[in-house]
């Protein structure tokens, strides 16, 4: 198994795909190799170390990255690779991303960090109007595929308006970039390395809630996980649940509770939101006939809407109940009201039951 | 996990005591460091009249303080002595008040004048401050304040300090949560500026805004309740630490995002000018103050607003609270030219540097800058060199800053400095000041009790204030307003 994967990687095919077992802590790296139990920020840190090691034209930059970053994801990089490759930028997100696009256009691997996804909006213009369209409008003469933008996103319990947002939906509307969201340390390392090496600009959102909380066995070697492949992390037959990032752990709790009521839930991690793996989700819905999508971002216009529309297009006659979406409310991310705003386990559970009993 | 200790001794500056290198020390004995700003400042019209400030001591800062690795920027100023006289051929600006659309102001023909010492018609004020490394020369000033003013300043600064200390305590007890950024050490700026404002003047701040709100007049109870997230808070509990607003006292926030408040302040200043000049409310001379930090000065919004404010001559003062650190990024390593005040003249407004640990100096500069704005002379950029004694936020372990640097500034605590000044100049006695300390302690304690006893916002408040009309969420399939459907707040309603 490992051998095939090594060959696959050498040929630039990424990991050779195979069936995954049914748990969130799937074994996605090679089974061999040392695996240590580490948390999310350490996994990302390892990925960045590997990325910089294997490509001497890779750069990491952003606000406060040189001392390790506010979430410690970039610890040790500046010491190891030097200030010419790992450096702080001034406080200008638009400048950071635009500068990254320039670096990428000249063939470098630019790994830009935006300190919180809430701050990515000044850079939105550069991402949408420049990064996404660079290859297209230059007729493939130039491209900024070497650009990867990493940003911590999502609720953290006390973040308030500007440290908890989930802006993935805005970026999923832009053809030309990829949007990737890992759910766990092992996934994060593999996916981040894939994103960095992917020949397209990628926005990589890291669930900040999981930076310290999620602990998993992560292989220490260099491995990549394929993009645009969703993963069924729990098999079931009654309803399909689709989610990504930190929300999956909440959904899994809901699945466990639903199990006690005899509802068998299938849980899918999209991993890549743009372009997303429609086939896997469709196959699952054809099996179960019901689907529920959950994400932290507000429900109107969230990415769940796209999934819902696509599934209905493809599986209309198979559906036994309307597509359910359990998402954040249509308000700015609140401070004190966060527990009411969030799509909690109970809300998901209620929706599962409502859908199954439709 | 171990944080690899990141050695901060960059090659830019060996020690941070020489924080702002002064490439042209002589210039700092002059009112303004850049010649362009002479366009907008008059030097003293009469050589014999005493300057408002004592000039920089004749022992000028020696060149050894010049940064070794910091190369002076292309700095074309000729050093102007403090008392420039009319023999320098001033070029007079047309003295008509510029029409509202400020862009019709005639451009100054710079090329035709060899000496850009331009005199304004008002000609009475000089806003200047020395780049003071140590807190000297306060004792050489004439008494700048009366006893009442002195006690007011002292009380305000002590309120700020006591409040922030109480915040820290409450945070560690779990009564407040979220990201809280404390203002310890920077009180002189808030007090120095805001205490000169009227109620209708506006203040726009950053996430480090508790003390700005307090200085502006928002009660300690309201701020503390807001921090606790209660309905009696100044924003009904919806804003939190970083978003202090007050309609009554014209505090326009509280911005978590750096630089976002500056355009908002610019718009507020525009309103004031519009009211005066177009709507002819002749007594409307409201000024807006925008506070922000050194990191923000590298952000595009800052520059855009400097341009707009100078272009339209808005009554605004841009106050840079340069505490040298943007979380963990040293200002000196993030900025091509760390002397922020120089950015003012590049846009056509005066740029002034002041020692932000000295409330009296700040107040003098503030008087001038706010006065300029009130008279319609346009914006000013004031850079206050200051320091935050605590970390960036209560979650910041603050490991990166050199303890020597911290000690250097801790010795310049603005409150102790003012106390010393008041006592030495017999403006107040120890007993007076202790009484104030005690009073403030009681105020803060009472604020905590009030906040504790206040109610938490009801769940229905969750949907309020998203739109003007909470029914803006529309009508659900059952014909009822969605916001009234209990399932809406549970998130399971069909939307």
TrEMBL record, chain A:
Q: Which Pfam families match?
A: Transket_pyr, Transketolase_C
Q: What SUPFAM superfamilies does this protein's entry cite?
A: Thiamin diphosphate-binding fold (THDP-binding), TK C-terminal domain-like
InterPro entries this protein is in? THDP-binding, Transketo_C/PFOR_II, Transketolase-like_Pyr-bd, Transketolase_C
Its recorded reaction(s) are:
N(6)-[(R)-lipoyl]-L-lysyl-[protein] + 3-methyl-2-oxobutanoate + H(+) = N(6)-[(R)-S(8)-2-methylpropanoyldihydrolipoyl]-L-lysyl-[protein] + CO2
Q: What EC number(s) does this enzyme carry?
A: 1.2.4.4
What are the GO cellular component annotations?
Answer: branched-chain alpha-ketoacid dehydrogenase complex; mitochondrial matrix
The answer to whether UniProt assigns keyword Cell cycle to this entry is no
Q: What cofactor is needed?
A: thiamine diphosphate
Q: Which UniProt keywords apply?
A: Mitochondrion, Oxidoreductase, Transit peptide
Q: What class of enzyme is it?
A: oxidoreductase
Q: Which GO terms describe its biological process?
A: branched-chain amino acid catabolic process; response to nutrient
- Primary localisation category: mitochondrion
Gene3D superfamilies the record matches: 3.40.50.920, 3.40.50.970
Record localization:
Mitochondrion matrix
Q: Which domain of life is it from?
A: Eukaryota
**Where is each Transketolase-like pyrimidine-binding domain found?**
38-213
Any GO molecular function: branched-chain 2-oxo acid dehydrogenase activity
Quaternary structure, from the entry:
Heterotetramer of alpha and beta chains.
Name of the protein described by the UniProt record: 3-methyl-2-oxobutanoate dehydrogenase (2-methylpropanoyl-transferring)
Which species expresses this protein natively? Gossypium hirsutum
| Source organism phylogeny | Eukaryota, Viridiplantae, Streptophyta, Embryophyta, Tracheophyta
Gene, per the UniProt record: LOC107907527
From TrEMBL, chain B:
Q: Which residues are in the Dehydrogenase E1 component domain?
A: 156-457
Residue intervals passing through the bilayer: none
One of the record's GO molecular function terms: pyruvate dehydrogenase (acetyl-transferring) activity
Q: Which reaction does it catalyse?
A: N(6)-[(R)-lipoyl]-L-lysyl-[protein] + pyruvate + H(+) = N(6)-[(R)-S(8)-acetyldihydrolipoyl]-L-lysyl-[protein] + CO2
Q: Report any one BP term from Gene Ontology.
A: pyruvate decarboxylation to acetyl-CoA
EC number(s): the record gives 1.2.4.1
Q: Which cofactors are named for this entry?
A: thiamine diphosphate
Which CDD domains does this chain map to?
TPP_E1_PDC_ADC_BCADC
Q: Which InterPro entries match?
A: DH_E1 (IPR001017), PDH_E1_Alpha_Subunit (IPR050642), Pyrv_DH_E1_asu_subgrp-y (IPR017597), THDP-binding (IPR029061)
Keywords noted in UniProt:
Oxidoreductase, Pyruvate, Thiamine pyrophosphate
Q: Which SUPFAM superfamilies match?
A: Thiamin diphosphate-binding fold (THDP-binding)
How it assembles, according to the record, is: Tetramer of 2 alpha and 2 beta subunits.
What does the protein in this record do? The pyruvate dehydrogenase complex catalyzes the overall conversion of pyruvate to acetyl-CoA and CO(2). It contains multiple copies of three enzymatic components: pyruvate dehydrogenase (E1), dihydrolipoamide acetyltransferase (E2) and lipoamide dehydrogenase (E3).
Q: What is this protein called?
A: Pyruvate dehydrogenase E1 component subunit alpha
**Organism expressing this protein natively:** Gossypium tomentosum (Hawaiian cotton)
């Amino acid at each position: 198994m490992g051998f095939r994967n090594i060959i696959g990687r050498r040929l630039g095919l990424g990991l050779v795909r195979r069936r995954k077992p049914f748990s969130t802590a799937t074994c996605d790296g090679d089974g061999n190799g040392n695996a240590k139990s580490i948390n999310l920020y350490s996994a990302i840190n390892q990925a960045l170390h590997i990325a910089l090691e294997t490509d001497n034209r890779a750069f990491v930059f952003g606000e406060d990255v040189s001392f390790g970053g506010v979430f410690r994801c970039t610890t040790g990089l500046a010491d190891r690779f030097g200030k010419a490759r790992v450096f702080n930028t001034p406080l200008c997100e638009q400048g950071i991303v635009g500068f990254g696009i320039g670096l990428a256009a000249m063939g470098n691997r630019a790994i830009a960090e935006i300190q919180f996804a809430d701050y990515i909006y000044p850079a939105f213009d550069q991402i949408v109007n420049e990064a996404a369209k660079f290859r297209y409008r230059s007729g493939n003469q130039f491209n900024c595929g070497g650009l990867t933008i990493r940003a911590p996103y999502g609720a953290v319990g006390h973040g308030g308006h500007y440290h908890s947002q989930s802006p993935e939906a805005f970026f999923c509307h832009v053809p030309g970039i990829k949007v990737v969201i890992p759910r766990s340390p092992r996934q994060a390392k593999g996916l981040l390395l894939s994103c960095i090496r992917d020949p397209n600009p990628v926005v990589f959102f890291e669930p900040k809630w999981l930076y310290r909380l999620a602990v998993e066995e992560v292989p220490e070697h260099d491995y990549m996980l394929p993009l645009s492949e969703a993963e069924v992390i729990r098999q079931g037959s009654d309803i399909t649940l689709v989610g990504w990032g930190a929300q999956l752990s909440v959904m899994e709790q809901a699945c466990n509770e639903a199990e006690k009521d005899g509802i068998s839930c299938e849980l899918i991690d999209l991993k890549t939101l743009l372009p997303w793996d429609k086939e896997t989700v469709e196959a699952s819905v054809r099996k179960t006939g019901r689907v529920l999508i959950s994400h932290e971002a507000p429900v109107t216009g969230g990415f769940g809407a796209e999934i819902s529309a696509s599934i209905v297009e493809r599986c209309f006659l198979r559906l036994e109940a309307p597509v359910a979406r359990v998402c954040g409310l249509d308000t700015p991310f609140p401070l004190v009201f966060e527990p009411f705003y969030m799509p909690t386990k109970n809300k998901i559970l209620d929706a599962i039951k409502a859908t199954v009993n439709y | 996990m171990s944080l690899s200790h990141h050695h901060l001794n960059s090659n830019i500056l060996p020690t941070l005591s020489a924080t702002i290198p002064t490439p042209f020390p002589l210039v700092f004995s002059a009112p303004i460091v850049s010649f362009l700003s002479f366009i907008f400042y008059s030097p003293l019209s009469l050589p014999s009249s005493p300057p408002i400030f004592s000039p920089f001591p004749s022992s000028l800062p020696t060149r050894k303080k010049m940064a070794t690795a910091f190369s002076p920027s292309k700095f074309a100023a000729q050093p102007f002595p403090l008392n420039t006289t009319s023999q320098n051929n001033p070029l007079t600006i047309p003295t008509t008040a510029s029409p509202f659309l400020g862009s019709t102001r005639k451009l100054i023909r710079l090329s035709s004048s060899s000496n850009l010492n331009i005199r304004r018609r008002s000609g009475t004020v000089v806003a200047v401050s020395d780049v003071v490394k140590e807190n000297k020369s306060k004792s050489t000033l004439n008494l700048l304040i009366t006893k009442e003013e002195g006690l007011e300043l002292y009380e305000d600064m002590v309120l700020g300090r006591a409040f922030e200390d109480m915040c820290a305590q409450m945070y560690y007890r779990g009564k407040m949560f979220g990201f809280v950024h404390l203002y310890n050490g920077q009180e002189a700026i808030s007090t120095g500026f805001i205490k000169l404002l009227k109620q209708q003047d506006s203040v726009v701040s950053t996430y480090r805004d508790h003390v700005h709100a307090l200085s502006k007049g928002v009660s300690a109870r309201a701020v503390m309740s807001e921090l606790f997230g209660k309905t009696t808070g100044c924003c009904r509990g919806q804003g939190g630490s970083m978003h202090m607003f007050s309609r009554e006292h014209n505090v326009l926030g509280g911005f978590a995002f750096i630089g976002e408040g500056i355009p908002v302040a610019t718009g507020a200043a525009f309103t004031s000018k519009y009211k005066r000049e177009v709507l002819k409310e002749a007594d409307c001379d409201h000024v807006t103050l925008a506070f922000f930090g050194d990191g923000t000065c590298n952000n595009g919004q800052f520059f855009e607003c400097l341009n707009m404010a100078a272009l339209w001559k808005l009554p605004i003062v841009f106050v840079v609270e340069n505490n040298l650190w943007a979380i963990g990024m040293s200002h000196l390593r993030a900025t091509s030219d760390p002397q922020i005040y120089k950015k003012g003249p590049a846009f056509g407004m005066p740029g002034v540097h002041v020692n932000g640990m000295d409330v009296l100096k700040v107040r003098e500069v503030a008087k001038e800058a706010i006065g300029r704005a009130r008279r319609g002379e346009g914006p000013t950029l004031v850079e206050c060199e200051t320091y935050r004694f605590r970390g960036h936020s209560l979650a910041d372990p603050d490991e990166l800053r050199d303890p020597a640097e911290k000690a250097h500034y801790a010795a310049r605590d603005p409150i102790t400095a003012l106390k010393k000044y008041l006592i030495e100049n017999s403006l107040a006695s120890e007993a007076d000041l202790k009484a104030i300390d005690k009073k403030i302690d009681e105020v803060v304690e009472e604020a905590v009790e009030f906040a504790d006893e206040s109610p938490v916002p009801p769940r229905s408040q969750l949907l309020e204030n998203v739109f003007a009309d909470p029914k803006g969420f529309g009508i659900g399939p059952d014909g009822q307003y969605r916001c009234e459907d209990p399932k809406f707040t549970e998130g399971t309603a069909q939307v």
